[in-house]
Amino acid sequence: MGENIGAAARAMLNFGLSGMRLVAPRDGWPNPKAKAMASGAAAVIDGVRVFDTVAEAVADCDHVVATTARQRGLFLPVHTPQTVGTELQKWSGEGRRTAMLFGAEKTGLETDELAMADALVTIPVNPDFSSLNLAQAVLLLAYEWSQAGGQSPLFESPYEEAPASRGVQEGMVEHLFEALDRAGYFYPEEKRATLQRNIRTLFTNAQLTEPETRLFRGMVRQLMRHLPEK
């Protein structure tokens, strides 16, 4: 289906892959539905090469890995997406042409087609529900290939505030103690020291940032407006 081809192209380009080869696409090629579904991955769709058979499609490849949910009695090594990503990157680094082979969404790859591969890839999914669509499978393998080669930048959180200083944290805690005291929380009096110690430890472990302490003190300040003076 054109939609599946387009979704697979989009998944590929997400992780830096652009060389797509199609084998006897059901609805012919080019396919406007594929281009629409690719959502901007024109670099993949415009460069598609079409072949009549799998053998022709992989004829110039040095290493081929094929996806399957079952080994089918073939004496081939079986990888997870993570381990095959590492292998593909190693082969590529040695100057070898590599390919990932996917079957049609409904039927997968035939045994004779799998036999053209050097290794098989099986995605470890829930055995009670192992249904993956084509683009999902492509996305998983493309991601692992990208990670194995360091292609994707490490994720950095845009929120990188350091914990507030001890002085700022202590000011917030004392502010809270004042509100709790006015609310009658420290009762009976002999439990005050233990309760305050536990509260202070709670906030020390929380490692609040300075903006978070300001937010918390603002909430305490608002609550204190409705508490009786002591």
Shape: elongated
Q: Give the strand order of the largest sheet, numbering strands 1, 2, ... along the chain.
A: 4-6-3-5
Q: How would a crystallographer describe the biggest sheet?
A: 4 strands, parallel
Question: So, CATH architecture of the largest domain?
Answer: 3-Layer(aba) Sandwich
Radius of gyration: 29 Å
CATH class of the largest domain: Alpha Beta
Based on DSSP secondary structure assignment, what is the total number of beta strands?
A: 6
Q: How many domains is the backbone divided into?
A: 2
Structural class: alpha/beta
Helices and strands in order:
Layout: H1 2-14, E1 21-23, H2 32-37, H3 42-45, E2 49-51, H4 54-57, E3 63-67, E4 78-79, H5 81-93, E5 98-101, H6 111-114, E6 119-121, H7 134-148, H8 166-182, H9 192-206, H10 210-224
Parallel strand pairs: 1-2, 3-5, 3-6, 4-6
Structure description:
With 230 residues, this protein is an alpha/beta fold. It contains 10 helices and 6 strands, in the order αβααβαββαβαβαααα. The chain has helices at residues 2-14, 32-37, 42-45, 54-57, 81-93, 111-114, 134-148, 166-182, 192-206, 210-224, and strands spanning 21-23, 49-51, 63-67, 78-79, 98-101, 119-121. The chain has a 4-stranded parallel beta sheet with strand order 4-6-3-5. A two-stranded parallel sheet has the order 1-2. It is elongated, with a radius of gyration of 29 Å.
